[in-house]
Amino acid sequence: MQKIICRELFTGNEFIEDAFVVFEDRIIDLGRGRGEQYSCDTTEVGFVMPGFVDSHTHAVFAGSRERELEMKLEGKRYMEILKAGYGINRTVEDTKRESDDEILRESEARIERAIEHGTTTMEVKTGYGITMEQELRLLGIIEKLKRRLEDRIDIIPTFLAHIKPYEGYTDELIEHMDAVAGRAEFFDVFMEAFGYDDTERLLRKAKSLGFGLKLHTDEFSDCGGVALARRLGCVSVDHLIRSPVDSFKSVEAQPVPCLLPATSFSSFEPYARGAEIAALGAPVALATDMNPNCWCESMGFVADLACYCMRMKPMDVLKGMTLNGARALSLKDRGQIAKGAMADIVITTAKNHADFFSKFGTKKVERLIKKGKVVI
Ligand SMILES: [Zn+2]
Q1: Is the pLDDT of residue 251 over 70?
Q2: Residue 356's domain is classified under what CATH number?
Q3: What domain range is 290 assigned to?
């Protein structure tokens, strides 16, 4: 059993000043004060919060796309870069050519750096295969990473229908989808590549096979994805740069809006209206979208962007990277410091939550605890 005494604790729901947390692999107790009834190894620190849950990444791929920066600076947009033979097609080619071992090595290094930045649970999507065979190969690599890194981070696999290389690809995916069932937790579709009807067909089939559903939507235009996601019972709906804020007004059960400010930052695009969506009471999640076009390994950087560029309040940002990130993955046992929750804990470099946000571009994580064990 171990105890942390801290100047401020964020539990996932509230701030507690002068608090203690006692844990083994799960949280045993927490509260105000020094927890004097528990005599065990004790550490005294500043601001403590749950381990970060990065609920949207494309962390498994080969190569890099730094050459696109000049094009982006010239004002070229995602679709133009794609048409010029760069973009996702470049990564698909690089990934196809590379060996499994090398993709594993590059992806593992990225995930290790995300751990250094405080991530204790990470969703990882396939999506750079673009044939069923290649996507299954990438899913196999994600499964290997999950096993290799299980003491340091939990990896949640998602199968992503990313681009439609030719007419008929949707039918192939539907025909062979049962090969993925039971291997990926979620099925996700990039709606702007597949269009409304094919997206709906894919998600309906995935639902019938027992997948949780996710949806990439409204990144470049409002394409009605939020209403579709609600109708089909998606767990999360992601990107939402062009979504009308009103879409999140409904009080009925709704998908978790997952916002990806680093994507806007890296592509010089507007930011999703995170502050307004959170103000409606929607459980906004925040994630890195780690991919070759948005090479962000740090949830701390995402937190700073959400606060300074989306004007989200610190409480909403911190919830977005912990509790609501877990909700976006249907995980009830983490993203919070609560009795019985997994002991995934970040000891930050900050004195309190305001201090956490007042410094940016700095190291935010002093120590990281995964399932009760110190990992950094
Ligand atoms: Zn994405």
Answers
A1: no
A2: 2.30.40.10
A3: 52-327
